[in-house]
C-alpha cells in the first residue's frame, strides 16, 4: 500500500519571496518497491490469449463415416462380404480397401450389390465375386434409409434394392450403418421414398395399384426419374415406383406381402427382420443395437 509522508521544513519564511527562493522539502509519496519505469529502449508488450475455439459440429458425412468405421470392426480376414450401396456404404468399402492395402485384413472376397459399388471396390483392389460362386456370405454391411425400433428397414433409395436384398438375405450376419437422422417410429414415417422395383412393361398399371393399396396412409406413388427427366433404370433394367407416405405404414409385414403379390413387381424396399445389428452415429456418439 502506498504511504503518504508529510515532512516539515526546518524553517519556513513568512515572506512569499523567501518561500519561493528556499528549497523546501518536497511532498513525498512512498510506493512499494516495484519499479514502474521501463528502460527507454524497452517496449511494453501485451499478449491476449483467447480460449480455443470449439470444434465445428459434425456433418452428416462425418456421422456416416463414424458408423462405417465401427461396422468394419465386424470384418475379419478370410470373410466373404456383401458390399452395400449408397453414401454410407461407400465409406465402408473405402475403409475395407484401406485395411487390405495396409495388410490388416487379408483374403477378403466382396460381393457387390450394384455396379457403382463394384467399380469402387475394384479401384481399391478388393477381390470380388458373385452369389453364384459364393451363395453363403459371412457378413454384409450396408446403409439404410429408415430404421424403426425393431431394426426393420427401408432401403433402396439408391436404386439397388433388388441386389441388396438378394445379397443381404444370403448373409449369416447383416450389419446396418446409418446416422441418427434415419431413425423413425414407423417405416414410411420420414415422408421420403419407399421404393418398389417394377418391370418396365405396363409400369403405370402397377403404379396405380400401389397407390390404391395404401389409400389409408395417404400414399403418393411416383415414377422415379433420372436427372435428364427420363425414367430411372436400375442395374437390372427395371423401373422404380417411389411411394411417399403421409403417415407410417400400419403393418409393414402385411404391406410387404401385398406389394410382392402384384404381378410385375420385382422387389420392394421393406427389409424386415433382416438386420442383426444396427450402428447409429449421432452427436452423442456411436451406438450399436443387436438382435
From TrEMBL:
Keywords linked to the UniProt accession: Acetylation, Isomerase, Phosphoprotein
Stretches for region Disordered: 1-24
EC number: 5.3.1.6
Pathway annotation from the record: Carbohydrate degradation; pentose phosphate pathway; D-ribose 5-phosphate from D-ribulose 5-phosphate (non-oxidative stage): step 1/1
Record's compositionally biased regions (Polar residues): 1-13
Catalyzed reactions per annotation: aldehydo-D-ribose 5-phosphate = D-ribulose 5-phosphate
Top-level lineage group: Eukaryota
GO molecular function, one term: ribose-5-phosphate isomerase activity
Annotated transmembrane regions: none
One Gene Ontology term from the biological process aspect of the record: pentose-phosphate shunt, non-oxidative branch
InterPro entries: NagB/RpiA_transferase-like (IPR037171), Ribose-5P_isomerase (IPR050262), Ribose5P_isomerase_typA_subgr (IPR020672), Ribose5P_isomerase_type_A (IPR004788)
Any Gene Ontology CC annotation: cytoplasm
Function as written in the Swiss-Prot or TrEMBL entry: Catalyzes the reversible conversion of ribose-5-phosphate to ribulose 5-phosphate.
HAMAP family recorded: Rib_5P_isom_A (MF_00170)
Protein family according to the UniProt entry: Belongs to the ribose 5-phosphate isomerase family.
Protein name: ribose-5-phosphate isomerase
Source organism per UniProt: Liquidambar formosana (Formosan gum)
Amino acid at each position: 500500500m502506498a504511504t503518504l509522508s508529510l515532512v516539515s521544513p526546518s524553517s519556513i519564511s513568512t515572506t512569499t519571496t523567501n518561500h519561493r527562493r528556499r528549497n523546501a522539502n518536497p511532498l513525498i509519496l512512498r510506493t512499494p518497491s516495484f519499479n514502474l519505469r521501463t528502460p527507454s529502449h524497452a517496449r511494453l508488450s501485451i499478449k491476449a490469449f483467447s480460449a480455443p475455439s470449439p470444434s465445428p459440429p459434425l456433418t452428416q458425412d462425418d456421422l456416416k463415416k463414424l458408423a462405417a468405421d465401427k461396422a468394419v470392426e465386424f470384418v475379419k480376414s478370410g470373410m466373404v462380404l456383401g458390399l452395400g450401396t449408397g453414401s454410407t456404404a461407400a465409406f465402408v468399402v473405402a475403409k475395407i480397401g484401406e485395411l487390405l492395402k495396409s495388410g490388416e485384413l487379408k483374403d477378403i472376397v466382396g460381393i457387390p450389390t450394384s455396379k457403382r459399388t463394384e467399380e469402387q471396390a475394384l479401384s481399391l483392389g478388393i477381390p470380388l465375386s458373385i452369389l453364384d460362386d459364393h451363395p453363403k456370405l459371412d457378413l454384409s454391411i450396408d446403409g439404410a434409409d429408415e430404421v424403426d425400433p425393431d431394426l426393420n428397414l427401408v432401403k433402396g433409395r439408391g436404386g439397388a434394392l433388388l441386389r441388396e436384398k438378394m445379397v443381404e438375405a444370403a448373409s449369416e450376419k447383416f450389419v446396418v450403418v446409418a446416422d441418427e437422422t434415419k431413425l423413425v417410429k414407423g417405416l414410411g414415417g420420414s415422408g421420403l421414398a419407399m421404393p418398389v422395383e417394377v418391370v418396365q412393361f405396363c409400369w403405370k398399371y402397377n403404379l396405380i395399384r400401389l397407390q390404391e393399396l395404401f389409400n389409408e396412409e395417404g400414399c403418393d406413388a411416383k415414377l422415379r426419374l433420372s436427372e435428364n427427366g427420363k425414367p430411372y433404370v436400375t442395374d437390372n433394367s427395371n423401373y422404380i415406383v417411389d411411394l411417399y407416405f403421409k403417415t407410417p405404414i400400419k403393418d409393414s409385414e402385411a404391406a410387404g406381402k401385398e406389394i410382392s403379390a402384384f404381378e410385375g413387381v420385382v422387389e420392394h424396399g421393406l427389409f424386415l427382420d433382416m438386420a442383426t445389428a444396427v450402428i447409429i452415429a449421432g452427436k452423442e456418439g456411436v451406438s450399436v443395437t443387436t438382435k
